[in-house]
Amino acid sequence: MKRTRPVSRNSVTLLIGVLLLLGAVLICIIAGHFLQNGVPLKYESIVEKYSREYQVSEPLIYAVIRTESDFDPQAVSSAGAMGLMQMTPETFAWLQSRSGESLPDSALLEPETSIRYGVYFLSILSERFEVTDTVLAAYNAGMNAVASWLSDPEHSADGKHLQNIPYPETEYYVIKVNRALAQYRALLEPITTS
User: Which CATH architecture describes the domain 43-188?
Assistant: First the structure.
C-alpha cells in the first residue's frame, strides 16, 4: 500500500489564495466588458483632441454623442439634425461663420467634423450659460429659447439655473444626458481619495 503525504495547511491556504485571485481577475474582466459595452467609447482620439482644444470635458462630449446619436455617424433626425452630435445645418452654418470655414452640410456626417463643431458649440454655450444643465438645454432647444427662460422668474430664480424647463422634450433630454454623463464620469475620471 502506497502512503500519500497529507496536504499541508500552507498549501491549502496558497491554493485558496490563488483561486480567489483568479476569481477576482475574472470578475474584473467581466465587469469591464459589461461596463465598456454599456458605456461605449468610440472616436477617442477625436474626442480627446477637441476636448483639449475647446476645454470641454470628455465625459460631457461622450454623453452628448451617446444621447444624440448613440454613436451612429450617419444619424439624421426628423428635424434635419445630422451626425454624431446631431447638429442642424442652420447651427452648422452659424458656427462656420464664426470659424471662417465653408463646408457642405453633408460634412456633419463625418465623425471629425461633427465632433469638432459639436464641441465648439458646447464651448460657446458653456461660456454663455456656465451651468451644465442650462448648456444642455440650450444645445437641445437653442440659445434664444434658453435665454428667454432664464429671464423669466417662472423658469429661473437666478438667471443661471433652470428650475423649470417648459419643453418636455428638452427636460427629458437634460435628464438623459446627465445619466450618461454620470456613467462617463465614473468610467473616465480618476477616483480621488482625501
Answer: Orthogonal Bundle (1.10)
